[in-house]
Amino acid sequence: MPVKDRILETALRMFRMYGIKSVTMFDISRESGVSKKTVYEHFRDKEELVQEGMRFMLKGHEQHLEDFRQQSANAIEELLKEVKYMEEMGNTINPVMLYEMQKYHPAIWREVETFKQEHMMRAITANLERGIQEGSYRKDLKLNVMARMRLLQLETVFQPALYPATQFNMQEVIREITAHFILGITTPKGREIAAGYIQIEKD
pTM, whole model, 2 decimals? Predict the structure, then answer.
């Protein structure tokens, strides 16, 4: 792996675990096995490292969404792969990182928001369209409404004020709202397909 990518991956892992502010360039150099000088040869300062790190992460998210679309047998399998990925990401993200990004790195946070409104909305909408074409999602769905609702559902999971970690398990929250979402958008055929992947009540 190129040195720059190793530094980026190390920085992202540490930011997700400890937040951005508490992690120093020295911490990152030590964890990535390179000198502090080498880190500064690739990144002018911590702000640039955070910016490139977030872009690196978002590009990875985008690739995963595309892989799920291409490698899934149907829309429901694609949706559930995305959910599993969200669970894995959620387990490695300290909410402090998101708070600090909004407060201290507003330009970078705007890129994250743009990614959500463009790439994630596009992926959710495409999944809904696919499900309708396959006959597993209802034909009467208002795509612009349902796509926004789904995005908001996923966003709320990462807001400690709504789902405090002391009271809720993130994986359970994601699964519960996903099961509710699937029950609301699927046809009888879709529920049969979903039942093959998850435990879901069939009417």
Answer: 0.86
